[in-house]
Amino acid sequence: MLISELVRRRLSAGHLIGGYGLPALALVLFVVFALALPDTFPTMANLTAIISAYSITAILAQGAMIPIVTGNFDLSIGYGLGLGHVMTLLLIVNLGWPWPQACLAVLAGGIAVGMINGFLVEYARIDSFIATLGTGSVMYAVTGWVTHGARIFPGPQGLPAGLTDLYDSTFLNLPIPAFYVLVLAAVLWVALERLALGRYLYVIGSNPRAAELVGIPVRRYVILAFAVSGLVTGFAGILLAAQQHIGNPSVGLEHLLPAFVAALLGSTTIKPGRANPWGTLVAIAVLAIGLSGISQLGADFWVAPLFNGVTLLIAVGLAGYSARRRTRAGAATTSSAGNRA
Asked: Is the C-alpha dihedral spanning 147, 151, 157, 162 positive or negative?
């Protein structure tokens, strides 16, 4: 009885640390940088700058999280972000499309690419790493082909105000992209935590064979997850076009690593052991606060990729640890129930 109580307390403490350790880290980082940089860091101007700089990465991280829920990875999101950004400006500037139609075309293209990824993973049985890396390379080639490797510059009249307002507007004195991020996270939370769809996706991610045995159409839901990931990536590409105002064929890949770091690191908090939207947002906050503070302290250019790379390794390790701890917790609960019986 004493042993079971000790196990229960240990698991409870571990759950508390796992669930809220990352938000606490974000708070600690903010306090440290606020004390080190009292005149610049804890200001509304800095908060606005951080939100503007990391909102697109936060949206892309939510897109990366969705296939992770099913146990797959979408490495094409960085390339898709670049292609979506370029295609938005190409359709508007070079072909003269109205900006709403151009945005809808980019969103549709994102869904199509996501479905192709899903078909390659589920029907061609190609590992998601390889399949999405392949489609990403194809998208990178398409980006170079349609732009001829050159940037796309709008004319003297600039881009339509409706497009630029998607990114440049403010609401409640905060950049409007912050509310896109919050709304997207809320929608994904409802879908994953309150709907049968989410339960099916989590079951597929934990045990695809068991999901098939209970009648869940695994292929359909995995393809859906990739399609939604493509949709979110297309939306991020549109926002990047509204932010940059210039089509750059090489932009996009720098968002890939931090997006994946956030999606993986987010699976270690709020709902430890499972990818979840609020955990992903907390992870983005940690990255944004850390990188912003380091930058303001005058760190060299190579510190940012070092920070992202080390955080990715830590995120993968913590994700694996969280999954193993959940397994041990389930075994301990079963053993305790058996002893009581």
From this structure: positive
